[in-house]
Amino acid sequence: MLLELTGLSKRFGPVEVLSDVDLAIDAGEVCALVGDNGAGKSTLVKCVAGIHGIDGGAITVDGEARHITGPRDAAALGIEVVYQDLALCDNLDVVENLFLGREKMRGMMLDDDAMEQLAAETLSSLAVRTIRNLRQPVASLSGGQRQTVAIAKAVLWNSRLVILDEPTAALGVAQTRQVLELIRRLADQGLAVLYISHNLNDVFAVADRIAALYLGRMAAVLDAADATQSQVVELITSGRSGTLGLGADTNGART
Amino acid sequence: MSTTAQANDAETRPGAGTEPGAVRAVADHVRGYWAEVRSGEVGALPAVAGIIALCVFFGISQPVFLSVGNLANLFGQGAAVACIAMGLVFVLVIGEIDLSAGFASGVCAAIMAVILTDWGMPWPLAIAAAIATGVVIGLLLGTLVVKLGIPSFVVTLAAFLAFQGIVLMILEEGSNITIHNETVKAVAGGNLERWQGWTLLVLTIAAYAALQLNRWRRRVARSLVHEPLAVVVARVASLGALLTATVFLLNLERSANPQIISLTGVPVVIVLLGVLFAVWTFVLHRTRFGRHLYAVGGNREAAVRAGVNVDRVRIAAFVICSGMAAIGGIVAASRAASVDPNTGGSNVLLLSVGAAVIGGASLFGGKGTVRAALLGGAVVAIINNGMGLMGLSAGVRFGVTGAVLLLAAGVDAMSRGRGKLFGRH
Ligand SMILES: Nc1ncnc2c1ncn2[C@@H]1O[C@H](COP(=O)(O)OP(=O)(O)OP(=O)(O)O)[C@@H](O)[C@H]1O
Ligand SMILES: [Mg+2]
């Protein structure tokens, strides 16, 4: 397993936002994380990304328990997060955004040509054909193109796990499909992908497995091939579906 | 600066360089540039157009405007404002403002004058002290804005008042200090020998050509999208021609009474502006720090997430701004051969902000170049010089400069809106 969360807990003051969450993600698969608003999805992501410390449980990468205390730690382990908003600088061009914070240098000078070449190679390895001019300011890109840049930024660094928090929430139908195809390609190239979405059609379109959070607890992790949309909806809204999900004894016990 | 994909094809196809391919490549390049302009990336265009229009207008109404003597004069008149404007670009790029830059230059100039004239210390010490004062001022302003989170508008407005008071205190209630040191006076008043001017010209053009061709060659070698060679050559040639003409004119005799005193050569202040321009352009466009300045101005949150040390970058911008204000103050003191309570006061700040914005820096942050400050500075200097020659009162000049600033800010706001409107999906 590339990433394994065992018994993960996170409290904000007295509120337990994540309690005893287990989740495992392997290389080459897309794992979707679903759950209602406030279920704790973004919090889980931030724990893995090192933005929040954890209050209990363990994060294991490649079978080794790790303390992730900041975004740099996460990046060093090959974990990259694509946030839905605020990820790009509108006034910088595509290449400048891709390398922001990790610029390639030649002595004390920026090596813009090397960065541009690497950017072109990365985009073509992801079969991205929608962005033709790499020197175009990001402000002039469409929403889907921007999201593509954000995702490419995450995979540029030999990352092994890419986490996408609602990457398609603001996109139209065609652009959503572009991004979903890109997500699928990432997994096919051997990366692990954790994909957060509220749209179950999108989830079923790309996910290999579906993990449903309910009020900070992991209700169930299903194989997408065996699951139905109505099952997942029940897990999201009530934490259980038939024999699946949180037992009656624990269900609703949370204050 | 980008070319279209077709331009690239035409240039890299075997046998390119034969006329039809090359011509089409250039035509595509021009079309690409025009498309950028129309999408709101107006860049230096308004400032250049303004300079040409103003020169035509003043040249016709006041023929003396186009005399070599007045050309040399223009540089001296505009240099202090241009220095301050170059520094302001850094603060504008990160989306802040420094309203105290004018009086900061006054404080630094006053300190230099005291050390030089009252204490009789050597000039390098006086100049170093002035620049160090600027740096400390910048650190102070930057720290207040960044660490305490007070809006830069408020911090620098307070500093604007305080520095005005400090100048008065240093100058002991309004007396003025004369500067006798010849070296310091030469900063704004001196001229190069003719041969020095020519040598510098050759070196400058050679360096520029080498940089441009080298860059072009590297991009071709990596088979990246590149401009047609003809465009690179044309750019080097036109800049070279412009500089050659300038040096030629400035090397002519421009004294009213050549028998009594001869006046020739490139003003030293042009060299100073050129060096500052080259240094800061390098910093802004070729270093990691420069890239991070734009990132902070474009989207601070994204810069934070990308691991940029945003606080340090922002403070550094204020330090550069005040440091450049110090240099502007030195130039102003050198030109006037004295420092008085009005040094750096009056309209200096507004002209400097105006210069940066007219040149294309954005008050909304994220946008601006050092070149913009120089071009905008030229517009401002020409307006003041030309209207002075026309005998217009200071009141009219203030009014017109204010109107031009408003116009430039309007173009800024509109091009921003246009970029949003047509650029975004
Ligand atoms: N920094 C914080 N301090 C205190 N409480 C927080 C903090 N961040 C999140 N929470 C709380 O944790 C709970 C889970 O929030 P989280 O953002 O993880 O939900 P989510 O599943 O991502 O929801 P959504 O689908 O709306 O994005 C919410 O009740 C939220 O109020
Ligand atoms: Mg969320």
TrEMBL record, chain A:
PROSITE patterns recorded: ABC_TRANSPORTER_2
Alphabetized UniProt keyword annotations: ATP-binding, Nucleotide-binding
Occurrences of domain ABC transporter (ranges): 3-240
Top-rank lineage group of the source organism: Bacteria
InterPro entries in the record: AAA+_ATPase, ABC_carbohydrate_import_ATPase, ABC_transporter-like_ATP-bd, P-loop_NTPase
GO molecular function, one term: ATP binding
Protein name per UniProt: ATP-binding cassette domain-containing protein
Species name: Glycomyces lechevalierae
TrEMBL record, chain B:
TM ranges: 42-62, 74-94, 101-119, 125-146, 153-171, 195-211, 232-252, 264-284, 315-336, 348-365, 372-392
GO CC annotations, alphabetized: plasma membrane
UniProt main location, coarse: membrane
Chain intervals for the UniProt region annotation (Disordered): 1-20
UniProt-recorded name of the protein: Xylose transport system permease protein XylH
Organism: Glycomyces lechevalierae
Taxonomy, superkingdom: Bacteria
Subcellular locations according to the entry: Cell membrane
Short name of any one Pfam family annotated for the protein: BPD_transp_2
Membrane topology reported for the UniProt record: Multi-pass membrane protein
Record bears the keyword Transport: yes
Keyword terms of this UniProt record: Cell inner membrane, Cell membrane, Membrane, Sugar transport, Transmembrane, Transmembrane helix, Transport
One Gene Ontology term of the molecular function aspect: transmembrane transporter activity
Protein purpose: Part of the binding-protein-dependent transport system for D-xylose. Probably responsible for the translocation of the substrate across the membrane.
